[in-house]
């Protein structure tokens, strides 16, 4: 008997015939995700949640399953683990068997490893595509925690012909080594995926290769790392993080200018993360970016010198009070917590005016 208990009191299983055509639903789903990420549309997680809710109410089970992630992570709504579970279960009971894989990942993150494995098993029984491989990868990459089944994880090598398993061998190279897979032996195959514009794994391959190189050869193959950063399908989050790292390593004397360029068009939710990473490499570089952003908003921080001048401190303090983060900012303008809080507030402001 499987352990998962259906809690469907607060989220009904969609039964209404869809008010949208298949093409319209696909377009709206993409728009919701664009609002969530803030790259190709205004950063607006609340609107993203509204769109998915409308699709779900109209019977779109893909949207219903996706709402599970939104509730779990508090995207555009208050976080609720109960509603997250309800959403996954509503999609599954509505007939979307593939939602079991997403639900399994959710359960594993919650530490409910036995329930997660049950869902993977049910997905395999329902012949959900790649469910068996994803179950193996969950055990092999540590997602199943103390409940990892080493015998199952050892099957990883059986799936290396599949792009997802191949990319994972590079991304999780230390784990792969445990199961007899040497990442460097497969790097060329992953780079081939990265260079194939028709592959839907192109961006993931570039991301895995960047992570592998940064962890094993951070000061080597700079041209290759630069090429990977130019992959149009690479997630912006990864591009920003690795571009900052590479700039600090290769041209530290120009890091101020490079970090400013890298963060200039950063989507609102990623700006604060990028600013925090900049501060780790150069506190003055982060202060200069803050000066530039505050000047755009009319706070008159003075010349963007990267120095904490009197005008800059006054501008930062006023911005902190205006955005209800003074309790953090009062620790001092150069403190990491202050820079992080200001970065979040600036990111939110950029999202509202973009």
Number of helical runs?
Answer: 20
Structural class: mainly alpha
Beta fraction: under 5%
Helix content: 55-70%
Question: What is the typical, i.e. mean, pLDDT?
Answer: 92
Q: pLDDT below 50 for ≥5 consecutive residues: which ranges?
A: 1-10
Cα-atom radius of gyration: 23 Å
Distance between the terminal alpha carbons, to the nearest Å? 51 Å
Query: What order do the helices and strands follow?
Result: HHHHHHHHHHHHHHHHHHHH
Number of strands: 0
Spatial shape: globular
Largest sheet: none
Oligomer category: single chain
Description:
The chain has 354 residues and is mostly helical. Among the domains are: 156-234, no CATH class; 262-354. Helices cover 64% and strands 0% of the residues. It contains 20 helices and no strands. The chain has helices at residues 22-37, 45-57, 61-73, 81-93, 99-109, 113-125, 131-140, 150-153, 163-171, 173-178, 187-194, 202-216, 222-229, 236-250, 255-264, 268-281, 283-296, 310-322, 326-329, 336-353. Helix 1 runs antiparallel to helix 2 (45-57) and helix 2 runs antiparallel to helix 3. The N and C termini lie far apart (51 Å).
